[in-house]
Design brief:
Blueprint (H helix, E strand, L loop, with lengths): L8 E4 L6 E4 L48 E4 L27 E7 L13 H19 L4 E8 L11 E7 L4 H17 L3 H12 L3 E4 L3 E4 L10 E5 L11 H22 L5 E6 L14 E5 L15 H4 L2 E3 L3 H10 L9
Parallel strand pairs: 2-12
Antiparallel strand pairs: 1-2, 3-4, 4-6, 5-6, 5-10, 7-8, 8-9, 9-11, 10-11
Helix pairs in contact: 1-4
The protein binds 5,6-dihydrouridine-5'-monophosphate and zinc ion (ZN).
Length: 344
């Protein structure tokens, strides 16, 4: 008899259409490969060398103001430019290109160099959520896709430990956005309801993959998760975009971010690295009630503060694979304290 808790199987990602290979029988395999250094670093509240700390000079020669809460600036080395000439790129046979415009911003979450989101107060995190909402609304006026994200930790290639995120907003729909757009619109056409509303309702009903929930939000390890402790965060009421969140949804968001991300840190008693970001309806002026706003959290750690998962080999060449089941990952996160280990 097939038992998904012990036997290899594939799971379907409802949002992207991708599949993931799950190999739960493989959990006991030994590890003699690379270990990331999981040092519990202590940082100063202000670092004179940091290009994000208040009052400091940035690499691009600008100087940061003495900000008290959050601070946004245009990325000094933007990947997208506002003034890209429009028009058709010369297309010849097999070689296609497409000119794109856009803008990139850097968001400082706090003047404190030594904090991360779960170590900030709910009130301070609420300023970050408000900044996300305001920035998304502003950039939506002239960009089709606004990608709000945070890269956290050296293990994720983040260049600076100062708490910060980024926004890349552009005139085009990137590939993952396009896949999620298609899946959600198809489902809505067929069922007349939002795919992710139905999915989250079902997860809450089942409970086994729910890590945490409050009156406005649900935090789950998605059924199709590829990263060991991957999370999906979605509102429980219909919301298409960040800028559509009302005050109580924003406050409840700050609360679940604090406790949910504290669980991450508590897992290996380390500052848990990840890439996270928000997905919402594209700003194309069409009906957007197929789309449900959500955030993905992709953390690379697997087994300890020093052993991370590599997406290599079969995963680069065939499809993603995981050993620990999402149900087991949810149980582990759920069993941890929502209170940060440094605040205990
Ligand atoms: P990470 O969060 O992935 O480390 O990226 C930091 C961003 O900050 C990166 O996109 C920008 C880089 O271009 N940056 C500035 O805009 N000004 C600076 O003085 C240094 C870094
Ligand atoms: Zn700093």
């Amino acid at each position: 008899m097939f038992d998904p808790e012990i036997h290899p199987h594939r799971r379907h990602n409802l949002l992207t259409g991708d599949w993931v290979l799950v190999s739960p029988h493989r959990n006991q395999r030994p590890w003699q490969g690379q270990q990331e250094s999981g040092h519990a670093e202590s940082r100063p509240a202000h670092d004179p060398e940091c290009y994000l700390c208040p009052g400091n000079r940035r690499a691009g020669d600008e100087t940061n103001p003495h900000y008290d809460h959050t601070f946004v600036f245009t990325n000094d080395f933007p990947a997208l430019l506002r003034n890209t000439p429009s028009g058709e790129a010369p297309e010849s046979g097999l070689f296609r290109a497409q000119p794109v415009g856009g803008e990139c911003r850097v968001l400082c979450f706090s003047p404190r160099h030594d904090l991360t989101l779960p170590e900030m107060s709910v009130e301070q995190i609420a300023r970050v959520t408000r900044m996300w909402v305001e920035q998304a609304g502003d950039l939506a006026e002239r960009n089709l896709w606004v990608q709000v994200f945070e890269n956290k930790g050296a293990a994720m290639g983040c260049s600076n430990p100062h708490p910060h995120g980024q926004i890349w907003a552009g005139s085009f729909l990137p590939r993952i956005a396009q896949q999620e757009d298609e899946s959600q619109r198809n489902y809505h056409r067929r069922e007349g309801r939002r795919l992710l509303m139905d999915y989250v309702d079902k997860e809450i009903q089942l409970g086994e993959r729910v890590v945490e929930r409050n009156e406005e939000w649900a935090l789950v390890t998605p059924y199709w998760a590829t990263w060991p402790f991957e999370l999906l965060l979605a509102p429980r009421r219909p919301v298409s975009r960040l800028q559509d969140l009302d005050g109580s949804q924003q406050l409840a968001l700050a609360a679940i971010l604090k406790s949910g991300l504290a669980r991450f840190d508590n897992l290996f008693e380390t500052s848990f690295p990840y890439s996270m970001g928000w997905h919402g309806a594209p700003n194309d002026g069409s009906q957007d009630d197929a789309w449900q706003l959500h955030a993905h959290f992709y953390p690379p750690l697997l087994r300890s503060a020093t052993v991370k998962k590599f997406m290599v080999g079969y995963e680069m060449l065939a499809e993603s694979q995981r050993d620990i089941t999402p149900e087991l990952a949810a149980r582990r996160l759920r069993d941890l304290s929502p209170r940060h280990y440094r605040e205990r």
